[in-house]
Amino acid sequence: MAFALETLAKIGFMLLFMLSLLPALIWAERKGAAFIQDRTGPNRASILGIRLAGLVHPIADVLKLVFKEDVTPARAHRVLYSLAPFLVMSVALSTYAVIPFGDYLLVGGRQVPLVVADLSVGILYVLAVASLGTYGIVLGGWASRNKYTFLGAMRSSAQMISYEISMGLALMGVLLIFGSLRLTEIVAGQGALLFGLVPKWGVVVQPLGALLFITAVFAETNRTPFDLPEGDSELVSGYHLEYSSLRFALFFMAEYCNMVVGAALITTMFFGGWQVPWLPRQTLEQHGGALLTASLGLAAVVLAVAALLLMRRARRERGKFGDARDREPGLLGGVCAALALAAAAALLLRPWTIGPQAASVYATFAQVGAFIVKTLFFSWLFIWVRWTLPRFRYDQLMSLGWKIMLPLGLVNLAVTAVVMALS
Amino acid sequence: METTRIPAGTPVPGRPDSFRDVIYVWEVLRGLGITIRHLIRNCLHMKDLPTLQYPDEKRVYGPRFRGRHRLTQREDGSPRCVACMMCSTVCPAGCIHIIAAEHPDRRIEKYPAVYEIDLLRCVYCGLCEEACPCDAIRLDTGVYEIVADRRDKFVVGKEFLLNERERGTL
Q1: What is the reported pTM?
Q2: How far is CA A387 from CA A38, A118, A331, A381, B6, in A?
Q3: Is residue A311 a part of any domain in this protein?
Q4: Could you tell me the pLDDT band of residue B168, with boundaries at 50, 70 and 90?
Q5: Are residues A327 and A261 in the same domain?
Q6: Which residues in A lie closer than 8 A to residue B25 (C-beta atoms)?
Q7: A54 and A101: one domain?
């Protein structure tokens, strides 16, 4: 019973994490693209004058999509057409089951491992489910009965097959080094220090593997420079061309879900997962009090600075718009100030005297935080790369996959195997 | 003309790809550096972005900017136009429609009974302004936000053009 409850709570946390990240990522994509291209980006939508630098726009987007007409093309295959977006989305969400987002949480003296399902074949599950995602795209493209969507679907399947091989090969090196398919063990293995200096992360022991894996993940998630299934310059918008309303929203959301999954996988396999670099769990627990005090102090200072800046802006821009938008900087400044005061007030509770139990919980939070920060960084990398690189041509994509990445992956695997056998 | 087919895979003339270009990684990192520089600069200096927050801020145009037309008036408020048809003749878009009538003052001869401009057809070239012998039509209102919800509202008449206070919304 307790196990079922724990699992449900973990699934809930994961779903909440993923789904609440989606609007933030869409915002980051639009605003990041704008700033990279010297534009201002979305800043119009507001709720009672609160715009949050465009963070309100995803709500407006979703409302628009909800109220749009849901069109099915006349000669489409109705069942498969309806099934495809759900397939894409559920596949994107289910990969998350095996990714560990923390070590363990101490609940009532019991250690609850922070992973939904600790499969012994975790990484195989990830690869298997990731390739299932192609089915959604292929079915969607085929069932729409449109040449563009069909071409997009064909490209997607060819691309996925080509890059899955490199992806698997890139992972093999890591599997050889850590000697396990279990993701929790791979992450635990990355906690050690190499020569007592650098953390033994996958990227340190397998730099080429990391590079190949990141490239392959970009191709698997259909993101630029490998977004040929969408190919809006030649295929209009590729496989989801005929979709509208909420079904389109599902495709759109699945793209970002896949991005988060890809980022989480890169983090887990090559960047230490939930490990805080140079601070193993024991250290975190031993110095829990001091570290908690330091983090609270830091939060208070950062929030106070933010509040100060916002207040100054509120004074400088008083009456700039002449409507509800004028209240925004002052209001946000007030919220920041209140949070800063709360953090400062928490310091009065003498956090440096916390017991071992609380220190353990603090360590867990720090580790989950490390995982989230790393995942966010790699999600941002997806966006960053999208607005930097142009799309590959189809033959370039294939020659990169088969003629460069596959041989490199094989060489990497062979060298790793020889080194592992000799040492 | 006969075209020569260039076989696929022929190298493009110009600088040959160096090793750095071929391995992608270095050039990708360089590109990422360029984009992040833009992003950071724009985050820190949001004021310097070239974007104009349009309805809140408006661009100031020069005094010679040709906006929506107006008809100038005599002291008594009647139009200076004498319905000579010069503007409607010279208009390349054919958007000016005038019906002349006899003016009670014999020295003036004619006045426009109807003076209509189709603002959707007008190309704002200013030839009517130059052709007019009486300085009766000018494009100096500076109004460029011309909005209506029906096509026929864009055909504006004499009263509208004579009224200095009329703005863009029809």
Answers
A1: 0.82
A2: 12, 36, 33, 10, 32
A3: yes
A4: low
A5: no
A6: 211
A7: yes
Task: Looking at the structure, tell me whether residues A250 and A170 fall in a common domain.
Answer: yes
Contact B49 A39 (CB under 8 A): yes
Q: How far is CA B130 from the centre of its chain?
A: 18
Q: For chain B, say whether A324 makes contact (Cβ under 8 Å).
A: no
Range in A106-110, A231-235, A403-407 the model is least confident about: A106-110
The ipTM, to two decimals, is 0.79
Contact assignment for B46 to A40 by CB distance below 8 Å: yes
Domain ranges of chain B: 70-163
pLDDT value at residue B60: 84
| Same domain? A252 vs A387 | yes
Task: Inspect the interface and report whether the beta carbons of B36 and A384 lie closer than 8 Å.
Answer: yes
User: What confidence tens digit (pLDDT) does each residue in B39-64 have?
Assistant: 998 888 888 888 888 887 888 888 88
Q: Does B25 touch chain A (CB under 8 A)?
A: yes
pLDDT-derived band at B167, boundaries 50, 70, 90: low
Q: Is A56 within a domain?
A: yes
Inter-chain CB proximity A38 and B39 less than 8 Å: no
Q: Does A423 touch chain B (CB under 8 A)?
A: no
Q: How far apart are CA A236 and CA A269, in angstroms?
A: 35
| Angle at A277 (CA atoms; ends A283, A191), nearest 5 degrees | 75
B51: nearest CB among A36, A40, A320: A40
B50 contacts in A (CB within 8 Å)? Answer: 38
Residue in chain A nearest B46 by alpha carbon: A40
| Residue A38 maps to a domain | yes
Is the pLDDT at B123 greater than 90? The verdict is yes
Question: Shortest CB distance from B32 goes to which of A38, A321, A388?
Answer: A388
Task: Give me chain A's average pLDDT, please.
Answer: 84
Task: Indicate whether B1 pLDDT > 60.
Answer: no
The CA-atom distances, in angstroms, between A26 and each of A16, A41, A299 are 16, 12, 26
The reply to whether B4 touches chain A by the CB within 8 Å rule is no
Q: What percent of chain A has pLDDT over 90?
A: 8
Owning domain of residue A319: 290-354
Q: What is the dihedral of CA A74, A76, A80, A85, to 10 degrees?
A: -80
Distance CA A90, CA A92 (A): 5
Whether B43 and A39 lie within 8 Å, measured CB to CB: no
* pLDDT at residue B90 in the model: 94
Residue A269 contacts residue A205 (beta carbons within 8 Å): no
Q: pLDDT tier at B114 (50, 70, 90 boundaries)?
A: very high
Question: Is residue A134 a contact partner of residue A229, using CB atoms and an 8 Å limit?
Answer: no
Mean per-residue pLDDT, A228-243: 81
CATH topology of domain B70-163: Alpha-Beta Plaits (3.30.70)
Contacts of B10 (CB under 8 A, 6+ apart): none
Instruction: Select from A302, A323, A354 the last residue of a domain.
Output: A354
Most confident of A64-78, A137-151, A322-336, B79-93: B79-93
Closest CA–CA distance from residue A40 to any residue of chain B (Å): 7
- Supply angle C-alpha A72, A76, A80, rounded to 5: 95
